[in-house]
Amino acid sequence: MDLTEPESLAPALAGAKAVFLLTAADFLARGNLQDVVDVVRAAGVPRVVLLSSQGVATKRHPSIHEDAVTGSGLEWTILRPNNFASNAYAWADSIRTQRVMAAPFVDVALPAVDPADIADMAAAALSGDGHVNAAYTLTGPAAISPREQAATIQEVLGTPIQLIELTRDQAREGMLAYIPAPVVESTLDVLGSPSPIEQQVSPDIQRVLGRAPRTFADWVSRNAAAFS
């Protein structure tokens, strides 16, 4: 199955009651989500949940994927996460081998969300009631800067970590190795100059799941082996 070949999805859609849509960062250049949604609708699937981005709500990212879903005539739910806690994996190799963490904008804080919370929200939207035509902003319980993330990782590991601040150009060069250029620029904009909305903690996880979002320390504790 391949999202760039929507017809290939038909066998998997037979009898499905809901579909979760997750696209790669470069999907806009390779495929058309509208075609995927058309196949989902033709298969008789009534509900779709899309993993989008808070950047769509703040106009940093295009809304074409959300538009395809919200205009489909299906029951839909949009999940708009902030920065992922798991983006810290980008530092894992240097922390593990050199006890060094390099990042730009080390004192700019964002409420990074644990991917496990995204999964729990997706499960609720896919199988529960009360989420039709809803867009949820997903964040952690508090804004946290790279400097604070380094301190958290250091505390969990019990070993000192050196923090090196990268320039925007240095960060861009590293990110271009695995992220499309337009996405790199918008990501650096968020990391370096977030809007007040992008720094706010959203109540949506608490409201839907009935519990507080997981902390960055929770995420590091569960994934400490990657940094050790």
Radius of gyration: 19 Å
Roughly what fraction of the amino acids lie in strands?
5-15%
| Strands side by side in the biggest sheet | 1-2-3-5
Uncertain spans? none
Output the CATH topology.
Rossmann fold
What is the CA-CA span between the terminal residues? 36 Å
Our count of helices gives 13
Please identify the structural class as seen in this structure. Answer: alpha/beta
Q: Helical content, roughly? A: 40-55%
The total tally of domains equals 1
Mean of pLDDT: 94
Domain NAD(P)-binding: 2-126
Pfam family, one: NAD_binding_10
Short key terms for the protein model shown above:
Ergot_Alk_Oxidoreductase, NAD(P)-bd_dom_sf, single chain, two-stranded parallel ribbon, NAD(P)-bd_dom, 6 strands, 228 residues, alpha/beta, 4-stranded parallel beta sheet
What does this structure look like?
- Residues 2-126 form the NAD(P)-binding domain.
- Pfam families: NAD_binding_10.
- The protein is α/β, with parallel strands linked by helices and 228 residues long.
- The protein has one domain (6-226): NAD(P)-binding Rossmann-like Domain (Rossmann fold, 3-Layer(aba) Sandwich), CATH 3.40.50.
- The protein has 13 helices and 6 strands.
- The strands form 2 sheets. It has a 4-stranded parallel β-sheet with strand order 1-2-3-5, sandwiched between helices. Strands 4-6 form a two-stranded parallel ribbon.
- It is globular and about 55 Å long.
- The two termini are 36 Å apart.
- The model has no long low-confidence stretch (mean pLDDT 94).
